[in-house]
Amino acid sequence: MNSAIVKDPGLLGQAAKKFRSDKITAAIDARRNPQMPSGFELVVAGGTKPVGKDVIAWAKECQGLGAGIILPTSMDGDGSLAGYDLEFTKAISDAVALPVVASGGAGKLEHFYEAVVKGGAKILLAASVFHFRTFRVREVKEYLRNKGLKVNS
Hints:
TIM Barrel
């Protein structure tokens, strides 16, 4: 859930109550904005509309409303294959007690490892590298295991 819960935060609580928090993921899109306390501003509508809210404040609010997972995507790096926005991911993972999903920008095997080690992510999301068959999921998992990380089968 993303733009809909920004418009009506009560939806998040209703969903958590009906389906349990562990089933609810709050997707949070952001862009860099030095005017925000964290340096990141919440955006909606596929990253096209700034909301005027600091993304860290929103992540904490989502946690309080019942989200079970936070899925932050830095729209500045999404689809770039240049790596996850580790500063952004780390800021979110440091701010909440929920699992955080690294999203937006993976292009090399190292990016997956860095998202966990430097970004604090517990879950990894990637699209382009799998759509374009740069890597197979099994290859990423084997790489992470070989680097000493615990990976679900």
